[in-house]
Records
---
Amino acid sequence: MKNATPPSVTSRRKFLKNTGTLAAASALAGVAVPSVYAAGSEEIRVALIGCGGRGTGAAKDALNTDGPIKLVAMADVSKDRLEHSWGDINGGRPGKVDVPAHQRFVGLEAYKGAMDVLKPGDIAIFATPLAFRWVHFRYAIEKGLNVFMEKPLTADGPTSKRMLELGEEADKKKLKVGVGLMSRHSRHLEELAKRVHDGEIGDIILMRGYRMHGPIGYFASEPKPDGISDFMYQIQRFHSFLWAGGGCFSDFNIHIIDHLCWMKNAWPVEARAVGGRHYKTNSKGIAYVDQNFDSYGVEYTFADGTKFNFDGRCMEGCADVYQSFLHGSKGSGIASKGGDCGAPSSLYKDQSLQAASMTWESKPKNDRGPYQNEWDDLVDAIRKDKPYSEVKRGVEASLVTSMGRAAAHTGQVITFDGFLNSDHEYARGLDTLTAPDSPAPLKPDEKGRYPIPEPGKKKDREY
């Protein structure tokens, strides 16, 4: 990883314009897209790619938006997961789901079949592990589709630049793109951001974020069982592998990192961090094979010198805290009361964060919740043909989160531009891996163990 001091944050766009175009750019430019998508009463059709819990939830929220909208295609690498998702979404939504068996696609190229069912101006939902985000996004642009994609979007520099380029291609075609960073659609955080940006607590001098709880998801994985390829094993347990999902740090912590940077209205220019692996066997003494640390402590620094401290931990039996805080020259605030963006937000006249010092508490009206709000905002932009793209912000939030992870994993100071310009891509040629038995991007040793971060020993990359 290149860790030299960045020339400036403002040089990024110039750099991207000089990096060359994607190989598929000529194909993207030739697709005709209507100037107005699903205007008026026209029905919007939706395809779900990635049918786990996140994708299923996103599809439900899509179908709860105003106006005629229907789920017409689904895709996943697992037939069982797809069928379970279909049954869950279909229940209680008459007229909103029309996904016959021949429009349920299974496999690594199933995303193409699902998107081929749609017409230009429809919506594709991407809720697969992040490694496939750029592959699916490129195909959606070729097809002239609007997109909703789950976070995080990237885990390394090369794919971050690729996604930024694709975002520019989508903008040229007036496609609408939403990203699942729902904090930006939390009405109470919108109120807080306005007040903070208007100076109610003065200049921000410190921010703090915490996500500390027991292991969840496939935070740590046991050795690969028989009957599944290493490639499919890593996809199914994407939390455990940096190439697939950015590890637990990127997947778990991006929301708090994103909304606190929103309050500052800036992205950090560098990150320093510590972290470690403490408990890496299960109750039977079997060693886990994942690449995660159990704990992380990151100090982000902004261009003006302001600090943002983030602490993450996945360990049983420890004190849990899952909140975010602001400290300004004239007061303080609580952004998330609990969880990724838990209401209410509040401001205080001093640094005590006590009720007696509270000057404001959020009470938004007509709030359908952040997950529904982000879909309402996207579909409204599609129906009214309003400019709408969250790609750049989504990539930058993903990149800043990855900076903290990489700083802990390498023991080095990681800069924004240094990480963006790194040539280390975790899963090269992912668009060519189309079979379940394709070679996995990460190779185990003879004992089934995968390379892990070793701070100070592995300095230029995370493993």
Note: The first helix runs from residue 12 to 17.
---
Amino acid sequence: MTMLRVEKLIKKGPRLFSIVGFIFLLAAGGLTPAQGQDDVLKTETALVQLNVGVVDRTGQAITSLSRNDFIVYEDNVQRPIAYFEPTQAPFSLVMLLDMSGSTVNFRQQIIQAAMRFLDALAPDDRVSVISFNGKGVHQLIGFSTDRGRAAYAISLATGAGSTMLYDGLKYSLKELDREGKRRKAIVVLTDGIDTDVRKGDRIAVSNASEAEVSTVIKPEASPALVSVLNEADRQGVTVFPLALPSGDPKRLPLPDPLITAQYNAARARLQMLADRTGGQISDIRRLDEMSRLYAEVAANLRTLYSIAYQPGTQSRDGKWRTIRIEVPRADLIARTKPGYYAR
């Protein structure tokens, strides 16, 4: 491939065809003149991106490791690390706020907790504030390091009506895609009861026998959830759900098996969002815990390394690929997402 052709490709797609991706492709064997831009984009976006936390046996975060301290395995085969960023590297993150009718009674606590979260971020972290309610998804501020503007945007968050959680997550991922190769995360405050997804759950339990009610809903099969997880996998986005008590199945006023099953499924999906992306779910048991939990998420972000590697095969066969991370010391434990579906 001539340098003139490389320059043309970069001009045609500067964001997707990154210099990092190009250097890695050359190192892996280069591109033939017959390959077009579609092939370039497919190869570059095939890098698997991970956010990795490392702790010792007491749970203390270890933040001083280097690229050479990590070994990545996919399906038990070691894979080369394409790039690495230390824990100090800045994040692009979305604060996603549930402004549906179920959160109306404690808006002030939500807004105060979200504002305190801003204070716990690093100066170079870029933040976008997005809310969702019955009227749709609303970006209150685009990505910025201006904490004053972000705080003002949070103060404007309002609304009522239905819960469009997965639309909010999809919109957040779309905005994060514009942030290029920066480290990425979504911190979503929600009860998890997505209105459209719940309609499908309600149909499933209404057609089930009494013995089947508790198991008939398959949370992992939700198309909305699968779509979000696939895109989060592609970009390497870590999701941190802060689960509001209004969505807790243990707090339902009436022990109706049909409703309990729907709430259990919704909470299970929040857990899957965290587990599959390498994040962590925080259950808010009392509203006065919100500020502390937001601060804990901010602290957690500051302990994550970012790693990208080339998978062993480019096959999009839909099969599960298991990921394992090793670090040199036996007393250290590395945590990241467990794998991904090659779609």
Note: Residues 122 and 171 are 24 Å apart (CA to CA).
---
Amino acid sequence: MQRRSESGPRRDRREGGGRGERSSRRKICQFCHDHVREIDYKDANRFIKRYISDRGKIEPRRKTGTCAKHQRELSGALKQARFMALLPYTAEHIRGM
């Protein structure tokens, strides 16, 4: 007779679903892939807007896949675009409250 552990049936590691589960594919930095030399704050409407959440926050590296170097440039460009009033500091639905 087999003995089962008190915590329940054993799970195979390949099944996943645990706390340490990671995505199978690593995200690549879009700026490195496109060989972007510098991130300009004036391109806010074209491509910088997608690095801001619906609440108006800067998306983290782990979500967007940008490298550390480009994330620093990106956050500087986003802050400069906000200061120059090209991008809002907060989302529109939050400002209306």
Note: Helices lie at 30-33, 61-64, 68-83, 92-95.
---
Amino acid sequence: MAINAYVLITLQSGSEKEVLKKVASFEEAVEVAMTYGEYDAIVKVRVEELSQLDKFLTDKLRSLPNVFLTTTMIAAKQIK
């Protein structure tokens, strides 16, 4: 059963388009959206195992330049 998670991201101002284009190229990223408010972006991530989510967050997403902060929420149950 696939694991869905939502990652809220805080970025360096002015880097949004460049960073999100890179994030969108990652196979784990199902949806990528720029947002207004407390966070600069949200990414829907789908993986098969928690170890893959950990690898995505630490090795891919958080290692990108201009990514300051991430907050991850794992979906407990998909309704629709």
Note: Strands lie at 3-11, 29-34, 41-47, 67-74.
